[in-house]
Amino acid sequence: GKDGGYDVKISAIFLQFKLSDYLKSKKSKEMYLFEHPYYRMKLRCLKISKQHHLLCDLEKLNKDRVFYIAPEFYEEKDLTNNFIMRKIIDNSALFSPLDIGYLDDEKHYIVFDDRSDFGYLCSNNPLKKSKKKLSNILEAFQEKSLNILKEEMIDILRNREIQVSSKILDNSDLSDFQAINLLARHYFVCEVLFVQ
Predict the structure, then answer these.
(1) pLDDT-derived band of residue 92, with 50, 70 and 90 as boundaries?
(2) Cα 113 from Cα 93, distance rounded (Å)
């Protein structure tokens, strides 16, 4: 790639930002799991999108680097305060796609609260799933070659029989940073955060 004549090594994390519903009615379906207000984050089933499976495949090659992320606040004033204090990500829940597991065509969602270090995958019977914070994840990061990361992403798409644009494959003016960013946004529908 065009990254200064050598293969750059850096840490990268992939985040798929999700919105969640805030549920506070005692009649809410999963209220018995928490007995106080909680959040519900919907996941796309396989018949709608291959996104979850692609994120699982990406995480297999990049352990603890691929996550769904959803805010643990819901009021506009909290959004404003978290934005001003630069705490939005600190006050958000992260869930590993691979920990959630590969999904079928049924409806699935994650429920969680802002008090626990876990949530539940709900479809039929709720299954407890680990909830993480980005600050804990960043401490354990290891570097990886950008070129290797780009090639892994392309291989995942090819293995899932997804045609990768020639604009990415054949563009020698595109740096590995740019290619990874394009692949993440266009095919994996997530953002990539590079950490040095």
Answers:
(1) very high
(2) 9
